[in-house]
Design brief:
Chain B: It comes from Mesorhizobium plurifarium. Chain B: Keywords: ATP-binding, Nucleotide-binding, Transport. Chain B: GO terms for molecular function: ATP binding; ATP hydrolysis activity; transmembrane transporter activity. Chain B: This is Putative 2-aminoethylphosphonate import ATP-binding protein PhnT. The complex is a heterodimer. Chain A is mainly α. Chain A has one domain: MetI-like (MetI-like fold, Orthogonal Bundle), CATH 1.10.3720.10. Chain A has helices at residues 2-12, 22-43, 54-61, 63-96, 102-111, 117-128, 133-142, 155-180, 183-191, 196-224, 228-233, 241-251, 255-283. Chain B folds into 2 domains: 4-251, 3-Layer(aba) Sandwich (Rossmann fold), CATH 3.40.50.300; 259-376, RNA polymerase II/Efflux pump adaptor protein, barrel-sandwich hybrid domain (OB fold (Dihydrolipoamide Acetyltransferase, E2P), Beta Barrel), CATH 2.40.50.100. In chain B, 24% of the residues lie in helices and 34% in strands. Chain B contains 9 helices and 19 strands. Chain B has a 6-stranded mixed sheet with strand order 6-7-8-3-9-10, with helices on both faces. In chain B, strands 13-12-11-14-19 form a 5-stranded antiparallel sheet. In chain B, a hairpin with a 2-residue loop joins strand 4 (79-84) and strand 5. In chain B, helix 4 (129-142) packs across helix 5 (158-171). Chain B is elongated, with a radius of gyration of 24 Å. The complex binds adenosine-5'-triphosphate and magnesium ion (MG). Residues 35, 38, 40, 58, 60-66, 215 of chain B line the site of adenosine-5'-triphosphate (ATP).
């Protein structure tokens, strides 16, 4: 075997097309790395063009930045937790409770991924907004003067909208993982005396941990960077990092501040993306 | 690392004594199962006595697994009741039936160590820590896997995994052990050993009632006290293993269990004499065989096993037929011959051959003892 390989290697070996790395690399550099470098550079340059590191430190300690950071983390952690719970419950039902049409439901939920995020927010406004169906109905029934349900215009409104939009991102890998769970194991557990809840905890979930981590970290990543939903709901005082970048750059033309926040936002995203890749790798995706 | 046989030595403790008495009977009372309009189990009535091993055998798709899963609680009967001991379990969920089950692909929990797999059922049933520790030790010792407690299933061979699966099922002290083709995934050599070890396990736990589903007749013949032969969702025959083998009640049973030769004969004389032998005619030959109440003139089948046919006659082997030699297959300890007797292929398994065998195509006599034969009715269906 080894001899044959040595004999044939020089003949069959082809010069790899090294050249082909150039176009994608150039494109990547032009469209992605160059702007990234510009942003980082801008973060350390004041708006008159002078190098300025002090501003970076000042922004890091500023109230508006810390508030936005806390908001961003609160919302994305809460939304991710919500996605995990909703995804898990839906996934368990779809995968393990036999009912006709479960496949159709799963695919329907899947198509959610294809929809623009603000669409859901718009629907929410119709449903739960001040003039939405829920409030109108309640005001009608109980003869109220003001809309009784106002949660939509708060952190929790944003969280609810994000949970709705991003749960499919957890559901999808979960369903894939669930489909690989050996039904024989579930039956064995059942015969041994385990009730459904124990089976979920000790047999099904351990098999779904990588999927939960992958789906959860993807949700974290997407909710940290969510812009459309937060903007659309326009909850008073709910400013997240992307929204802050937007308002600093577009409304106040404070480019250095915007870039400083952007750098932090990017660092946060890359960290979460690393987590996602790690989990997805363990999942074999 | 080599695996010791099921030792069974630890099974002599107090707890094990409880299993001995703990066996329950399993009663199928007109149980039928249908998937939609497709009836896969026709009303089945069958009783497995406490401590009995019942082997359910039959061709693929005959409803064996379905019957077993109905006992486990995974298949809901369309009609009929299933009782285990005094309990009607028909409406109980699987986790309240107190059974053990082992299936072909082991179904061990991959993320748990062997000891946690074995402890699973006891934990689910809320047993206390000390008892769990003791039972896990006992169960693993019973299947000879004590040295593997800390391993994960993926670190075990197929045979070892199956031992753990058996230990896991035994740890909860089931009233009934359900085995669905437990050895099918193993290769022939290991399978033979495991059959012997399961037999030994049952000698150590004689109270344990076992429903053993298999399509392997050797496993059934080796292990079972009784055999139920399934065909198209019905029990084709059911009885003590040796009796079913010696006096098969129909053609299907005779052929499925031990591939018997069945010669179409016409009864000449009904049962007579102390041995209850009837006389039957096959062409010119008159043969004696164990009767089943046939009357002269009845057309029936004479059942004779390949290993009971001899190439030489003596005072015992008094029946004589003549066939044409078609094929000879030498297989080491056995030689298989195929002859044509009046248009019926007849298989012979001979341990000893005459110095010179006749040429293929030439006529050759075969001898057999009347006591080794029985008259078997043709199947009513099929
Ligand atoms: N979930 C199901 N839905 C529809 N039909 C089924 C289902 N499970 C089994 N069947 C049918 O029921 C019949 C009996 O199946 P069963 O699994 O009991 O056979 P078996 O005797 O165990 O066969 P094998 O030796 O191949 O395991 C078969 O015709 C099979 O196609
Ligand atoms: Mg089967």
């Amino acid at each position: 075997m080894a001899d044959a390989a040595v004999l044939h290697a020089p003949i069959t070996r082809k010069v790899p097309g090294r050249f082909w790395i150039v176009p994608p690399a150039a494109l990547l550099a032009l469209l992605f790395f160059y702007p990234l470098v510009l942003i980082v550079q801008q973060a350390f340059t004041d708006d008159s063009g002078m190098a300025n590191v002090a501003e970076f430190v000042r922004v890091l300690h500023a109230r508006f930045f810390l508030n936005a950071l806390i908001n961003t983390i609160t919302i994305s952690v809460a939304a991710t937790a919500g996605c995990l719970i909703v995804g898990l419950v839906l996934g368990l039902i779809l995968a393990f409770v036999p009912f006709p049409g479960s496949g159709v439901i799963a695919r329907l939920i899947d198509t959610f991924i294809a929809l623009p995020t603000f669409l859901v927010t718009l629907a929410f406004t119709f449903l739960y907004g001040s003039a939405g169906m829920l409030n109108a109905g309640l005001m009608e029934i109980f003869s109220l003067q003001a809309p009784p349900v106002n949660f939509l215009y708060s952190t929790w409104g944003v969280v609810l909208a994000e949970v709705t939009v991003y749960s499919p991102f957890v559901l999808r890998p979960l369903l894939a993982a669930f489909s690989l769970v050996d039904r024989g194991q579930i039956e064995a557990a059942s015969v041994l005396g385990a009730r459904p809840f124990r089976i979920v905890r000790q047999v099904i979930l351990p098999a779904a941990v990588p999927a939960l981590i992958a789906g959860g970290s993807l949700c974290l990543l997407l909710t940290v960077n969510e812009f459309g939903i937060v903007l659309f709901i326009g909850a008073k005082g709910v400013i997240t990092l992307p929204l802050l970048i937007y308002s600093k750059a577009i409304q106040e033309s404070a480019y250095q501040v915007a870039c400083i926040i952007a750098v932090i936002n990017i660092a946060l995203s890359l960290g979460l993306f690393g987590l996602y890749r790690f989990a997805a790798g363990r999942l074999g995706a | 690392m080599s695996v010791p046989a099921f030792t069974g030595s630890n099974v002599m403790d107090v707890d094990a004594a409880k299993i001995r008495g703990a066996g329950s009977n399993v009663h199928f009372d007109k149980v039928s199962v249908a998937y939609g309009a497709h009836v896969v189990l026709h009303p089945l009535t069958l009783d497995i006595a406490p401590g009995e091993i019942l082997a359910m055998i039959g061709p693929s798709g005959s409803g064996k697994t379905t019957a077993l899963r109905a006992v486990a609680g995974f298949v809901r009967p369309a009609s009929g009741r299933i009782r285990i001991g005094a309990t009607d379990v028909t409406d109980l969920p699987p986790y309240e039936r107190g059974l053990g089950m082992v299936v072909q692909n082991y179904a061990l929990f991959p993320h748990m160590r062997v000891e946690d797999n074995v402890a699973f059922g006891l934990r689910a049933q809320g047993a206390d820590k000390a008892l769990i520790g003791e039972r896990v030790k006992d169960s693993l010792a019973t299947v000879g896997m004590s040295g593997f407690a800390k391993r994960y299933p993926r670190e075990l061979s197929g045979g070892q995994q199956q031992r753990v699966a058996i230990a896991r099922a035994l740890a909860v002290r089931p009233r009934v052990l359900l085995l669905d083709e437990p050895l099918s995934a193993l290769d022939a050599q290991i399978r033979r050993n495991m059959v012997e070890e399961i037999a030994k396990l049952h000698r150590d736990l004689p109270g344990l009632t076992i429903l053993y589903v298999t399509h392997d007749q050797t496993e059934a013949l080796t292990l079972a006290d009784k055999i139920a032969i399934m065909r198209d969702g019905r029990v084709s025959s059911h009885g003590p293993t040796a009796e079913l083998y010696r006096r098969p009640p129909n053609r299907f049973t005779a052929e499925f269990l031990g591939r018997a030769n069945l010669l179409p004969v016409t009864v000449a004389e009904g049962a007579a004499g102390p041995k209850g032998l009837a006389k039957a005619r096959l062409g010119d030959a008159v043969l004696a065989g164990a009767a089943r109440g046939e009357k002269p003139g009845d057309k029936t089948l004479l059942c004779i096993r390949p290993q009971h046919l001899s190439l030489t006659g003596d005072e015992e082997h008094t029946n004589r037929i003549v066939g044409t030699l078609k094929e000879v297959h030498w297989q080491g300890e056995l030689t298989h011959l195929v002859l044509d007797v009046d248009g019926t292929p007849v298989r012979v398994s001979a341990t000893r051959l005459p110095v010179s065998l006749p040429e293929r195509g030439s006529a050759m006599p075969l001898f057999f003892a009347p006591g080794d034969t029985s008259l078997v009715p043709e199947d009513v269906r099929g």
